[in-house]
């Protein structure tokens, strides 16, 4: 079972910050073999949606209100530990993130920058592609909005 919490940066514990950075590095840098600057000084503005299984962070996103990342509210750094993806935690953490944007920011129009290969995943959550494909850190991405 996934236990999901949403916290501001200042309310994260040191252990939670460490687990966030470890999970993001494990997936985005090591698994995807992508050298990029994950620590971007945007975490301080974000709210963090954390999914724990047996006290270990296995799913995560960060969310932003309008103007803090994009013009519109946004969800980013969507990540699930590789061995936990079979459990559907990506869907659970993303749904929780949409609800958190609605609840904490009172916003319903959300923009994401999605890795292109996950287009169908995001479409299953009522997001649609806008614009053309582009490269971000050497990985094909697409902009998507909810509808």
Estimate what percentage of residues fall within beta strands: 35-45%
In CATH, the architecture is 3-Layer(aba) Sandwich
Using the CA coordinates, give the radius of gyration.
14 Å
**Into which percent range does the helicity of residues fall?**
25-40%
Span between N and C termini? Answer: 29 Å
Short synopsis of the structure:
The protein is an alpha+beta fold and 147 residues long. It is built from three helices and seven strands; from the N terminus they run βαβββαβαββ.
List the helices and strands and how they pair.
Blueprint: E1 3-8, H1 14-31, E2 47-53, E3 56-64, E4 73-80, H2 89-105, E5 110-115, H3 119-123, E6 127-136, E7 139-146
Describe the 3D structure:
With 147 residues, the chain is of the alpha+beta class. It has a single domain, classed as 3-Layer(aba) Sandwich (Aminopeptidase). The chain has 3 helices and 7 strands. It has a 7-stranded mixed beta sheet with strand order 1-2-3-4-5-7-6, sandwiched between helices. The longest helix has 18 residues, at 14-31. The N and C termini lie far apart (29 Å).
Task: Record keyword descriptors for this entry.
147 residues, alpha+beta, Aminopeptidase, seven-stranded mixed β-sheet, 3 helices, globular
